Amino acid sequence: MKRETKQLMDSKFETLKANVQEIIDLIAAKNDREANNKLLEVSETLDEMIDFAEEDEEVREITRYQVLLNQLHVKINGEEPVDGE
Fold first, then answer.
1. What backbone phi and psi angles, to 5 degrees, belong to 54?
2. pLDDT per residue as tens, the chain (85 positions)
3. Distances from the Cα of 58 to the Cαs of 10, 28, 49, 61, 65, in angstroms?
4. Sign of the CA dihedral 9, 24, 21, 38?
5. Three-state DSSP class for 26?
6. Contact 69/39 with Cβ under 8 angstroms?
7. Phi and psi dihedrals of 12, rounded to 5?
8. What gap in Å lies between CA 51 and CA 78, rounded to an integer?
9. DSSP for 4-65?
10. Alpha-carbon dihedral of residues 3, 4, 8, 11, nearest 10 degrees?
């Protein structure tokens, strides 16, 4: 069971990586509205992932993505994110 959970989490990180790249590509294309929509979607996914994280390494990796998403939010919106966003 634990092995299946790890494989599922690894798969989620691969999807997460692709989604973050999509956000970066949208920002580069000056498509801020779509980038922001995708960022919100990915943020929700991260929130779900942290609820199910079992290993410290998973939590650390999720936290890295949360920091990156906060930086992308600032890049898109030109402002500091509000707590909880």
1. -110, -25
2. 577 777 887 888 999 999 999 999 999 999 999 999 999 999 999 999 999 888 899 999 999 999 999 999 999 998 765 555 4
3. 9, 29, 9, 5, 11
4. positive
5. helix
6. yes
7. -65, -40
8. 29
9. HHHHHHHHHHHHHHHHHHHHHHHHHTT-HHHHHHHHHHHHHHHHHHHHH--SHHHHHHHHHH
10. 70
